[in-house]
């Protein structure tokens, strides 16, 4: 198979939803521009500067490190531009990072800061210089905030947000934080002691914060594109154009969406690698959209055999269409992915990563099992047999599919970004 390719089967012409991907000798540079660009969605919204608008509102965002911290910040920022069109927004994050590419492509101003990452375990020798680098980062953030003079700073957790929010507190600027996970990380747990408001995704998360009266349960802000209704039939044609010529009822088709994350989930990829062929052989109306992750794509591409009902991609731009096309989602249990599964009402099989700090994904996954009936397979339990059995058990049971879908929709909070924007405006008004 050629070393540079878009996907594993021949379809003319190449559709626009896959990254152009090659295998360079140098470290990869991941372009995620389209992933967060929602300018069109903004333009489609009719906005007005009604009685709730605040002229000259300035808000700074501290977001970065992972998509789980970036996505909710961008969703909140977009909502602010809708409800308060004159808002001035500034994002602070690391240079040469995911956020340094994603934020400008979402049409927001971005300034780099020297963020400092805490190394685990806490008593590692690599943390000896942490105080020095933290002070250096806070000083830079202090300078940038002094120039921008925001009314409020929004932190979405992680080590990127920590120095920004500390600098804001030192300047006497109001700070709100948003926690995506079922249990908060170290940064948000500490910052919550001084924050004016703490936005959380789940009711149970409130118990993890010492100042419970500051918590507002509103769900996780999801991308605007996911809120737009997309036809399942059109979405499937987007990925499998030849379906238009297929005879028989399209209602019998079942689509499995496998999400390996932006970089990849090796355990999920290997488990699927050993069972995908059997699933497609035994079920002629089953299709698989498989996002391997950029880091894993070359290896998976060399091992997976071409099949007309299989689409292999390093990264999917059109996530709204991917969710719309799917009957079942197989994924890691990142907080934002879980929230997107709820918002789109999709039955899911979750494989929490054991490598995420503080066991966030395990807690997210089992909370999803409680509220949405998601199936959880730990990495210790994961193999091709376990995964294949779970997929088959769910997809052949229409009643179970409907029940899981309804439970997910019932647990979703699609208006999270609007509620957070409303609270931000109210908080600034109280002090203006």
UniProtKB/TrEMBL annotation:
Domain of life: Eukaryota
Protein name from the UniProt record: Glycosyl transferase family 28 C-terminal domain-containing protein
CDD domains, alphabetized: GT28_MurG
Gene Ontology MF term list: undecaprenyldiphospho-muramoylpentapeptide beta-N-acetylglucosaminyltransferase activity
Glycosyltransferase family 28 N-terminal domain: residues covered: 59-199
SUPFAM superfamilies: UDP-Glycosyltransferase/glycogen phosphorylase
Glycosyl transferase family 28 C-terminal domain sequence ranges: 255-418
Organism from which the protein derives: Gossypium darwinii (Darwin's cotton)
Signal peptide: none
Keywords annotated in UniProt: Cell cycle, Cell division, Cell membrane, Cell shape, Cell wall biogenesis/degradation, Glycosyltransferase, Membrane, Peptidoglycan synthesis, Transferase
Gene Ontology annotations of biological process type: carbohydrate metabolic process; cell division; cell wall organization; regulation of cell shape
Keyword tRNA processing: no
């Amino acid at each position: 198979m050629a070393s540079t390719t878009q996907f594993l089967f021949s379809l003319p012409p190449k559709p626009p939803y896959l990254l152009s991907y090659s295998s360079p000798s140098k470290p990869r540079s991941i372009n995620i521009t389209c992933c967060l660009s929602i300018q069109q969605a903004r333009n489609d919204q009719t906005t007005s500067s009604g009685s709730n608008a605040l002229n000259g509102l300035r808000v700074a965002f501290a977001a970065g490190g992972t998509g789980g911290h970036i996505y909710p910040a961008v969703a909140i920022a977009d909502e602010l531009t809708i409800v308060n069109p004159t808002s001035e927004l500034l994002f602070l994050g690391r240079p040469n990072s995911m956020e340094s590419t994603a934020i400008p492509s979402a049409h927001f101003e971005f300034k780099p800061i020297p963020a400092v990452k805490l190394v685990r375990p806490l008593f590692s020798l690599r943390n000896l210089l942490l105080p020095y680098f933290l002070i250096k980062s806070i000083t830079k953030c202090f300078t940038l905030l002094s120039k921008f003079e925001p009314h409020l700073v929004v932190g979405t957790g992680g080590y990127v947000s920590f120095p920004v929010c500390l600098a804001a507190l030192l300047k006497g600027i109001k700070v709100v934080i948003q926690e995506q996970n079922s249990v908060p990380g170290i940064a948000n747990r500490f910052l919550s002691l001084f924050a004016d408001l703490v936005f959380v995704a789940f009711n149970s998360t409130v118990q993890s914060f010492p100042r419970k009266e500051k918590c507002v349960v509103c769900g996780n802000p999801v991308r605007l594109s996911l809120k737009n209704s997309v036809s399942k039939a059109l979405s499937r044609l987007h990925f499998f154009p030849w379906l238009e010529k297929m005879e028989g009822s399209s209602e019998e088709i079942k689509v499995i969406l496998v999400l390996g994350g932006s970089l990849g989930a090796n355990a999920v990829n290997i488990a699927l690698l050993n069972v995908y062929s059997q699933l497609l052989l035994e079920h002629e109306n089953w299709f698989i959209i498989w996002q391997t992750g950029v880091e894993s794509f070359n290896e998976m591409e060399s091992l997976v055999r071409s099949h007309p009902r299989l689409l292999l991609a390093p990264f999917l731009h059109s996530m709204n269409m991917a969710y719309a096309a799917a009957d079942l989602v197989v994924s890691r249990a990142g907080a934002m992915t879980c929230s997107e599964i709820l918002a789109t009402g999709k039955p899911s099989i979750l494989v929490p990563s054991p490598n995420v700090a503080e066991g966030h994904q395990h807690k997210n996954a089992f909370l999803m099992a409680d509220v949405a009936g998601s199936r959880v397979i730990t990495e210790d339990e994961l193999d091709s047999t376990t995964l294949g059995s779970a997929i088959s058990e769910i997809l052949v049971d229409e009643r179970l599919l409907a029940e899981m879908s309804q439970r997910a929709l019932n647990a979703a909070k699609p208006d999270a970004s609007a509620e957070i924007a409303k609270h931000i405006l109210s908080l600034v008004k109280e002090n203006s």
